[in-house]
From TrEMBL:
Its EC number is 1.17.1.9. One of its GO terms (molecular function) is formate dehydrogenase (NAD+) activity. The gene is fdhF. Residues 103-142 form the 4Fe-4S His(Cys)3-ligated-type domain. It comes from Paracoccus maritimus. This is Formate dehydrogenase subunit alpha. Belongs to the complex I 75 kDa subunit family. In the C-terminal section; belongs to the prokaryotic molybdopterin-containing oxidoreductase family. The lineage of its organism: Bacteria, Pseudomonadati, Pseudomonadota, Alphaproteobacteria, Rhodobacterales.
Length: 977
């Protein structure tokens, strides 16, 4: 493959054009003799930049609104008095601009002299040397001398007026100090804040407000006493409300805010564009390197999912890729009681292949299976399901995507005809009402949350359905119009009650329904939903949602303009997950909120490639492209491509595999990138199933919890070490590019190919692009996708085919994929998991900003500073009656098991509800979750578990025995000399 070069202008110009782009009627002007035409509302600075003329600037940046404070960007405009700031001056027809007149040059040099007079002159030893906008601007304006004598300043700790640190040391009196000098704040694990180098341009403050929406930074004081503050005088960057997204660091034009990695390793000299491997937003990053050493990750401004923004995980938490815990040599053992022994790749693969073939000979071809992960690329996932079908000869393939979002595939497939969200993330900028159901975007999808909060600050309304008061309900400059704190497990009842209001109050968009939906099905649905038993008043006792609030929310969604629904695992991980998804689709069709920008039904996918895992045929009943394995014409496509016969019988899902293992009929598992012992429900049952298997192959970066029961460990490669694609929550296919060589010697798809060939296959892929070519040849929605297209366009959204050669940002524009939209009756059925005298509380689980899924990656970074352990959120009333105080150890018990963890008292949860995360294996929170699951897809019911909470003295006996077993299983024999 050719090396990927960052595309140059147009369209991929990476320069900062000073102010944001505008849209409007064309306006023509002349800048320094060059004619340029730009949209109305464009600043003179941006117009000049588009003409190839870069006006000096310090406070301006094209991801922030113009501020006009630095006065370095002044220009002259014929017919106007003075020298206006080009960043705040909009263009006008026929305008003639001079950016290099003697007058503006003189002004700029004077302004720059003032900045430099209060700035240390340590450029040669500064971490930003070569990457400093102040340094560049000084050169740009021709500053060669500073006329001001050293005096009162912010940078000299000695108070002697020294302009450099060496001067300060030489001249520092013992009894004198500079009261204006503030020492460097190094509290944040990822970046430093050096006030002595701050020019008070406000870019960091504005980035925190406009881009991130956290409002953690302010300018304190006035005039010469102005300085950036991260909160109260007692706060530093770690203790403040800063979420470490890096927007301030990226915005800073000096070394005031600087990555510690750059301070340590130096300014990077090359970059590779790739895609983040954390959540389903799919942010694009420039991985910036010195040689093969990764120095920093910088959000790529042309990334269509993130538009140049990032979160703490994607921006900073990449250190796990080179963590000491990584296993880089294959390992095998005959039994799980033995220690591991390192072997060469050939021996490990021969051992694994021999075991698997032997099991199939002894127990039958359906005795083995595969599990793949949503952390893996599309190409890797495709090969793993191909391994099951073309090499193992069965359909025993499953993925963690089914464990989180399979109800999305089922529900949206039945109603709209396709198993994916309807919009791109840009769409939220045109939403008037946003409904969030069972999702916590500020923690789980923070970059999307920042865009959402920006739209809310512009006046859009917000409705939140969640048992817990998440940050999006009320935060800086954002407050939900309605928060409906429904009781866990009552999603269907609440959504149906909203539909009841819309139907009975005449808020239905009948014209849309007659044109776009099946009218007979609608009539049948209306007869169901208008029944009085579905009214908010009759549902209030069941759901806990005040009837008046529910009616108000339904009216707002139906009448407030463009209404968009975003939902997450709080919808899907229920026994009625599929029913709720269909109910959400019903709401969108009832109100006509489908098929244009600003509306739609949008699942917020939890992991980076949940969508892609589903697309690639990882389910036991579906081949790639969501086509059932029983269909002869579909099987024929893959049989021709693969040269094998495909079993028409659907295979086993993960819980079926575990059941069959306990029964003695399922004996071998290849598990790539997934840790089912920590992430799947009912830990005792998972452990029993794994223990009963005779060959478990774990293919991962670390010895995870599942590897406690493994016989073969194949070291994996991180996202920085591989080529491929991820498909994010908006169906966007993004390129993953190799930043460095795989530390283990192979990309993950190569390992799967080696295993397949060791078992007798004859695969001969030489690059991940060839796997994508095969996907495109066999999967209609990917028909036009290739690495070349993605390199050219940056990314595309499927379906990408002859009808949409450059992808499809908005689905169902003229008609639904299924032809007509289908209304489906959503009868509420209470889960079998019920609270009672023995287990009176309801546990729901979720994630936190600083960690990701089971924490295997983020626990091996400095992110543990923010969340060193899982804690149980409990309402003060529930805590008081149980004698539980803040920070106490508590026993969390259910019908399935028990664990212990520390409690924190909060009114974020309602009385009767408790909440915890599942990021730390020491807690092993899923030991208490049950094996109840969604009726249609087997998606586990993580969000509703009846529990009891009581005081405890520390870790339970089970936790201690579990940890002992885990420690024993991770023994590795010393390498033979």
């Amino acid at each position: 493959m050719k090396d990927f070069i960052i595309p140059q202008f147009p369209p991929g110009d990476d320069r900062d054009l000073g102010t944001p782009a505008r849209s409007g009627a064309p306006v023509s002007l002349r800048v320094d003799g060059f004619d340029v035409t730009v949209p109305e509302g464009t600043s003179v600075m941006r117009a000049a930049a588009l003409a190839g003329i870069m006006v000096p600037k310090l406070c301006a940046s094209d991801n922030l609104e113009a501020f006009g404070s630095c006065r370095l960007c002044v220009v002259e405009i014929e017919g106007r008095r003075g020298t206006p700031a080009s960043c705040t001056t909009p263009v006008a027809e026929g305008m003639i601009v001079h950016t290099q007149s003697s007058k503006v040059k003189r002004i700029r040099r004077g302004v720059m002299e003032l900045y430099i007079s209060d700035h240390p002159l340590d450029c040669l030893t500064c971490a930003a040397n070569g990457d400093c906008e102040l340094q560049d601007a000084a050169g740009q304006v021709g500053l060669r001398d500073v006329r001001y004598t050293p005096g009162d300043n912010h940078f000299d700790p000695s108070g002697t007026g020294a302009r450099s640190q060496s001067e300060a040391r030489l001249r520092m009196p013992v009894d004198q100090a500079n009261p204006r000098y503030t020492p460097k704040d190094e509290s944040n694990p990822y970046f430093t804040f050096d006030p002595s180098k701050c020019i008070v341009c406000s870019r960091c403050v504005r980035a925190c407000e406009e881009v991130q929406g956290t409002f953690a930074l302010t300018i304190e004081g006035r005039g010469f006493d102005s300085k950036v503050s991260a909160g109260t005088p007692l706060d530093d960057f770690l203790s403040s409300e800063c979420v470490s997204c890096g927007a301030c660091v990226q915005a800073c034009p000096t070394a005031t805010l600087q990555e510690k990695s750059v301070i340590e390793m130096g300014t990077p000299e090359r970059s590779v564009i790739t895609t983040c491997a954390y959540c389903g937003v799919g942010c694009s990053f420039k991985a910036e390197l010195n040689g093969d050493q990764l120095v920093r990750m910088v959000p790529y401004k042309h990334g269509k999912a993130n538009r140049g923004h990032s979160c703490v995980k994607g921006r900073f938490a990449y250190g796990y890729a080179q963590h000491k815990d990584r296993i880089l040599k294959p390992m095998i053992r005959d039994t799980i009681e033995e220690p591991w022994r390192e072997v060469e790749w050939d021996e490990a693969l021969a051992f694994a292949a021999g075991r698997m073939k032997g099991l199939q000979q002894k127990y039958g071809r359906r005795s083995t299976g595969v599990i793949t992960s949503s952390r893996c690329t599309n190409e890797e996932t495709y090969l793993v399901q191909k391994l099951a079908r073309a090499v193992f000869g069965n359909n025993n393939t499953d993925t963690c995507a089914r464990v989180c979002h399979s109800p999305t595939g089922y529900g949206l497939g039945k109603t709209f005809g396709t198993s994916a969200g309807t919009q791109d993330f840009d769409s939220v900028e045109k939403s008037d009402v946003v409904v969030i159901i069972g999702a916590n975007p500020t923690d789980g999808h923070p970059v999307f949350a920042s865009r959402l909060k920006k739209r809310l600050r512009q006046g859009a309304k917000l409705i939140v359905l969640d048992p817990r008061r998440t940050d999006i309900v009320r935060s800086a400059h954002v407050e939900a119009a309605y928060h409906l704190p429904l009781r866990p497990g009552t999603n269907v009842a609440v959504v149906t009650a909203m539909a009841h209001v819309i139907v009975t109050e005449g808020l239905v968009n009948e014209a849309f329904i007659r044109e776009r939906c099946d009218w007979d099905e609608f009539q049948y649905y209306v007869d169901f939903v208008r029944q009085d038993r579905h009214s908010p008043e009759n549902m209030q006792a069941l759901t806990g949602v005040p009837a008046e609030d529910l009616r108000g929310a339904a009216r707002l969604y139906a009448t407030g303009g463009n209404g968009a629904i975003y939902y997450g695992l709080g919808v899907t991980e229920h026994s009625q997950g599929s029913t709720t998804v269909m109910g959400i689709a019903n709401l969108a069709m009832l109100t006509g909120n489908v098929g244009r920008e600003g509306v739609g039904v949008n699942p917020l996918r939890g992991q980076n490639n949940v969508q892609g895992s589903c697309d690639m045929g990882s389910f036991p009943h579906e081949l790639p492209g969501y086509r059932h394995v029983k269909l002869p014409d579909v099987r024929e496509i893959f049989e021709k491509a693969w040269g094998v016969e495909i079993d028409p019988e659907p295979g086993l899902r993960i819980p079926n595999m575990l059941d069959a293992a306990v029964e003695g009929t399922f004996k071998g598992l290849y598990c790539q990138g997934e840790d089912i012992l920590q992430s799947d429900p009912d830990t005792h049952h998972v452990a029993a199933g794994l223990k009963a298997m005779e060959c478990v192959i774990v293919h991962d970066l670390f010895l995870n919890e599942t590897a406690n029961y493994a016989h073969v460990f194949l070291p994996g490669s991180s996202f920085l070490e591989k080529e491929g694609t991820f498909t994010n929550a908006e169906r966007r296919i993004n390129r993953v590019r190799k930043v460095m060589a795989p530390l283990n010697g192979y990309e993950d798809w190569e390992v799967t190919q080696l295993l397949a060939n060791a078992m007798g296959a004859n695969w001969h892929y030489t690059h991940a692009s060839q796997i994508m070519d095969e996907i495109a040849a066999t999967t209609p929605s990917f028909a036009n996708v290739s690495f070349d297209l993605l390199d050219e366009k940056g990314s595309v959204q499927w379906p990408c085919n002859e009808d949409a050669p450059e992808g499809t940002p908005t689905m169902h524009v003229d008609h639904f994929v299924s032809g007509k939209g289908h209304f489906i009756v959503t009868e509420y059925l209470a889960t079998d998991e019920k609270s009672g005298p023995r287990f009176p509380l309801l546990l729901t689980t979720g994630r936190i900003l600083s960690h990701y899924n089971v924490g295997a990656q983020t626990r091996r970074t400095a992110n543990v500073v923010w969340h060193p352990e899982d804690v149980l959120e409990i309402h003060p009333h529930d805590a008081e009656v149980r004698g539980v105080n803040e920070g106490d150890w508590v026993r969390l018990a259910s019908r399935s098991g028990e664990t212990t963890l520390k409690a924190t008292l909060t009114d974020r949860v309602a009385p009767g509800v408790v909440y915890t995360t599942f990021h730390h294996p020491a807690t092993q929170a899923n030991v208490v979750t049950t094996d109840f699951s969604d009726w249609a897809t087997n998606c586990p019911e993580y969000k509703v578990t009846a529990v009891q909470v009581s005081p405890s003295n520390g870790p339970s006996d089970w936790q201690e025995s579990y940890n002992e077993q885990a420690e024993r299983s991770r023994r590795i024999l010393p390498a033979a000399e």
